[in-house]
Amino acid sequence: MKFGRSSGILLHISSLPNADGIGDLGPEAYRFIDFLARTNTKLWQILPLNPTGYGNSPYQGLSAFAGNPLFINLNMLIKEKLLKDEDLEKRPRFPTRTVDFSKVIAWKTHVLNLAFKSYKQSPPNEIQNGFLDFQESNQNWLDDFTTFMTARIKYNLVSWSKWPKSLRVREEKAITNFKHKHTYDIEKNAFFQYLFARQWQTFKKYANDKGIKIIGDIPIFVGYDCADVWSHPELFFLDAKMKPTVVAGVPPDFFSETGQLWGNPLFDWAKHKKNGYQWWIERIKQTLALVDIVRLDHFRGFAGYWEIPADAKTAEIGRWVKGPGIDFFGVVKKAIGDLPFIAEDLGVITPDVIAMRKKYKLPGMKILQFGFDGDPDHEFQPHNYTIDSVAYTGTHDNDTTIGWYKSASILTQLHLQEYLNHHRGNVAWEMIRILWSCVSIYAIAPMQDFLKLGNKARMNYPGSLTGNWLWRMKPNAINNKLERWLTRINYLYRRD
User: Fold this and answer.
1) Is pTM, for the whole model, over 0.90?
2) Contacting residues for 477 by C-beta, under 8 A, at least 6 apart
3) Percent of the chain scored above 70 by pLDDT?
4) Distances in Å between the alpha carbon of 435 and those of 102, 110, 443, 461, 481?
5) Chain segment 410-440, per-residue pLDDT in tens
6) What is the rounded distance in angstroms from the CA atom of residue 262 to the CA atom of residue 218?
7) How far apart are CA 469 and CA 50, in angstroms?
């Protein structure tokens, strides 16, 4: 696709303010679009939209295709006569600065169950017709996902590897009997997906009509405990007991002496290639139905990835294995046309990764926080950026700019002050300003940096299983001063 010089804000849907404990597709999402439009900020970047499981990480979703029902706005269901005002009267009191996931899940599940019950009792209407169309057009993934989710609830959220063997290995008779016995709950899970898709498409159309593009995210790997591994075990390296034989991670480096053991099952790329990468093509098409541009997480994994034995305790024991590479993107391009991708090319980047990105003219990523070690030739210093890149102050995996600066060494702080010619005051806005001025085709900063927030607003701590994905923007956090300033720098650096 053709990328034009623009700017954007990274803010996940869950971080929007509202009364139901987690950001959703209600009025605050539309207000944020209006703010972007007024400031001529053309990009809104979000994290993966998939339903989350253990740890509430959007990068360990329960499906590579489904949407997160927690993002359904409940008040809109009142307007559609699926709920009544009194259904929301017993809304719990939620924290405004963080997401209490257990409390939110209990509340929203309860209310969405009421909405489905109302739907089942309604005479034929436009919603029912839309639901039937949705089921038909998404049958390639929806049936497996809704069966998986229903079984997951029935078996108290344990991993599918601990289900009865007949379901675990998907014996046809067992699956048929399970579906027959749990028809109501399977249809309910499908209905939740329809409500999400219905609200999302209305939201996306509003954004696009205002000139705003949505940047989504595809994690290269999926979590083991997800509908895709359960329904397509042949596409992964699993043993006879349906357990992974090898898992994903990255080798030891400067940041970690033992590397990072992610634990995701690895794709059997030979099987994917044999069927024309069909699962991947469907996954990409599904994502592009929701967003305009896609960030490909761990892009280097398509060229080569670190394979770790499943019984390893750390990522130290492993080997580099060749990925599908250029061939994969050629097949995808033939299937979908333009490749509106941003390559997350951070980490160990080898010549084959660079060649793959450049062949398909995909912009890579630059992280401003990484650039201040005193070396003027550092690739992450703004004067070394290239036009085929997307520049960030930091991402969801980094500290906020204020948090990073306060925890940086004195030497790093001095390098930054010299580079910015700025010795006190608003470090976050000064870093955004210099980022906006660079040559990169896109410049993007997390909302936390625009709000000048510190470490407590950090979204994720890589390697930590708790305390992540919690931050929420407080109501009315966006003020006139921020709006005027952002409008001005978009104009000043021709990102409008």
Assistant:
1) yes
2) 17, 451
3) 99
4) 38, 44, 6, 24, 19
5) 999 999 999 998 766 799 999 999 999 999 9
6) 16
7) 14
388 is catalytic: no
The span from the CA of 144 to the CA of 130, in Å, is: 20
Check if the beta carbon of residue 380 is closer than 8 Å to that of residue 371. yes
**Quick one: DSSP state of residue 95?**
-
Sequence-separated (6 or more) residues with CB below 8 Å from residue 437: 382, 493
Beta-ladder partners of 445: 9
The predicted structure's pLDDT at residue 309: 98
- The identity of residue 349, as a single letter, is I
What domains, with CATH codes, occur in the chain?
6-492 (3.20.20.80)
Of 20, 185, 297, 345, the active-site residue reads 297
Could you give the 3-state DSSP secondary structure of residue 186?
Answer: helix
Backbone phi and psi for residue 122, each to the nearest 5 degrees, phi listed first: -90, 150
Catalytic residue of the set 187, 397, 430, 496: 397
- Is 473 in contact with 453 (CB distance < 8 Å)? no
User: Is 399 among the residues known to form the active site?
Assistant: no
* 413 DSSP 8-state letter: H
Which listed residue (24, 185, 344, 345) is catalytic?
344
CA dist., res. 157 & res. 151, Å (int): 8
Active site residue 344: yes
Q: pLDDT tens digits, residue range 63-100?
A: 999 999 999 999 999 999 999 999 999 999 999 999 99
Q: Give burial (CB, 10 Å; 0-12/13-18/19+) of 4.
A: exposed
The CA distance from 16 to 22, in Å, is: 7
